[in-house]
Amino acid sequence: MNYALLALMFAARLMVASLAPMTDERAELADAIARVVYADAPFYRGDEERLRTLALHVAVAYREGSLLTSAVGDKGHSFCAFQIHDSSGGVEALTRDADRCAAAGHAMLRASIRVCREHPVAWYAEGPRGCESARAQRISADRVALAGKVLRDFMPRSR
Asked: Which one of 42, 86, 118, 140 has the lowest number of neighbouring Cβ atoms within 10 Å?
């Protein structure tokens, strides 16, 4: 039994539940997010428990697709909870596979953070011009602030 992975799955489920009613679809996505986050290095230094990394995933998936793997947006061009646009490799099959959805979102978030440290979700939001885009910077600030709120609300007060 991998207790660290179970703890991360539990943390992801709590974070998801703090934003939206828990459903089987959302629980499956939370578990998939925890698996993909745990299988990779954290996004942030000092985040060995990966709670900040999990919180960013949950915030983005909440704002982009209401934490629903089945979400389709942009007039049929963006897929799953992470709204992976077809120009970025998004395909309709992501809406049926929480693990693939979470992995695609994770890869895009990691790339976005690497490309644009000051506005970590800006590249994710608008692609190559996102770092300079005021709109993408606002989107990034919103997702990062929401991740912070989820993390503060989730973390025990004694920490």
From this structure: 118
Distance between CA atoms of residues 28 and 22, nearest Å: 10
Distances (CA, A) of 135 to 95, 107, 123, 142: 26, 22, 11, 11
User: Does this model's pTM top 0.85?
Assistant: yes
Using DSSP bridges, classify how beta strands 84-85 and 72-73 pair: parallel, antiparallel or unpaired.
unpaired
Buried b (16+ CB within 10 A) or exposed e, 78-113: bbbbbbbeeebebeeebbeebbbbbbbbbbbbbebb
Cα 130 to Cα 94: distance, rounded to the nearest angstrom: 24
Structure tokens at 27: 């629980």
Task: Choose among 89, 86, 87, 104: nearest CA to 32.
Answer: 104
Report the Cα 115 to chain-centroid distance in Å.
Answer: 17
